[in-house]
Amino acid sequence: MQPSLNPALAQARFCPRCGRPAEVTFPRLLSCPDCGFREYYNPEPVAAVIPFDAHGRVILLRRGFEPSAGRWTFPGGFVDLGESVEDAARRETDEELAMAIELGALVGVYSRPDDRVVLIVYRALALGEPSTTPEAPEVRVFTPGEIPWQELAFWSTRRALRDALGR
Ligand SMILES: [Zn+2]
Question: Which of 34, 60, 79, 94 is packed most tightly, with the most Cβ within 10 A?
Answer without folding.
Answer: 60
